[in-house]
Amino acid sequence: MLWELLYIFFKVGLVSFGGGYAVITLIQREVAGQGWLDSGAFQEIVSLAGMAPGSIATNTATLIGYSQAGVGGAIAATVGIILPSLIIVIGIAAFFLKLQSNKWVRSSFYGLRPIVTGLILYAAVHFGFSGTSGSWLTWTLAGSLLICAGCLLLISKYKVHPFAVILLSAVAGIVIF
Amino acid sequence: MKQNARGKMKLLWSIFCVFFKIGPSTFGGGYAMIATIEEEIVRKKRWMNEAEMGDMISVSGSAPGGVAVNSATFIGYRLGGVAGAVAAVIAITLPTFLIVFLLSGLRLLFKDNVKVEAALKGIHAAVVALIIVAAGKMWKASVLDAVTFALVAVSLALLLFTQIHPFYLIVGGLTAGVLVVQYNQKRGKSIVTEQVRTEESRDLQFPEYYI
């Protein structure tokens, strides 16, 4: 199990261009494929991961590893997702390619960036709607939309720090639900 | 020789301490953390200069993985080789690793508490908002013309309606980028592959992947 966790998160880490939310989609597909967690449990893990500092992707890996195989699993999954970046960045630093001025890198990133956008959009759709099965216009859904809209306003218009937004929405959740 | 080994240990320890301090401050996203790294590494420790910081940011933004871990790897490697890189990565990961554990432990403790359930629902909505903000920033940095718009649309549609593994999308995107640029060059057209960078748009160039 530990090797499996290490291997799967190593694969995820290898293609985790764009970090963070794009990787949530990658992890979600792997977890669904392995049948490790149901959708609700996965969402709860992502919520917890979002509350802690650090990468939401790495935190999600830690928690999934923990849910599957305890502390050892958490370590295996975390090492697995970080190891590829470690190796690749050392490689780049050692040979020191001026990456961003390289023509090939520039043109492949021209195609890669839209894909990362697609992955993040999918994460938003999946994460936003898959909890709302059954009836649509429920009190919970209305409350969630309200909080989500409020957060969007706070972040984009008033530049409130993400952590403050998360704390505020926790309070709002207690008031509304 | 013995003196050397001791000097190396001391260097590794100080690399560890600096990144251990930076780790918990990665709350505001990777690029918010760049400011903290600059303060510690360039100004206080004088381990690197501004130009090297620029190299570091471009490398850690392009390689797979989070900006924070990649920056730590790069700086650690420059200072203390592979051992330095490993020390820096462990140091920047460890605090958040422990905090994640603490949170999930607390979560178990309050498993059936109604208030905690409600708070988590609120946080869930906030995380959706954070993802939308990240998507918006990434959209601005990536959709430059019709081709890139089509790539976003196709990748989103494939993810929504098929069980395609994202790996193929990433490889496909990389290939498509190279092909489109080559094709346009053959026809004598040059295309803009990146948003024009100004100091104000640095925020767009480096979207906060890493919240």
Automatic annotation (TrEMBL), chain A:
Source species, domain of life: Bacteria
Keywords from the UniProt entry: Cell membrane, Membrane, Transmembrane, Transmembrane helix
Membrane topology designation: Multi-pass membrane protein
Pfam families noted in UniProt: Chromate_transp (PF02417)
Keyword Protein biosynthesis: no
Transmembrane segments: 6-24, 72-97, 109-130, 136-155, 160-176
Localization annotation: Cell membrane
PANTHER family associated with the record: CHROMATE TRANSPORT PROTEIN-RELATED, CHROMATE TRANSPORTER
Family statement drawn from the similarity comment of this UniProt entry: Belongs to the chromate ion transporter (CHR) (TC 2.A.51) family.
Protein name stated in the entry: Chromate transporter
Annotated organism of origin: Paenibacillus tritici
Upper lineage: Bacteria, Bacillati, Bacillota, Bacilli, Bacillales
UniProtKB/TrEMBL annotation, chain B:
Keyword rRNA-binding: no
Subcellular location: Cell membrane
Membrane topology (UniProt): Multi-pass membrane protein
Major localization listed first in the record, in broad terms: membrane
Highest taxon, organism lineage: Bacteria
Family in the record: Belongs to the chromate ion transporter (CHR) (TC 2.A.51) family.
Entry protein name: Chromate transporter
Species for this entry: Paenibacillus tritici
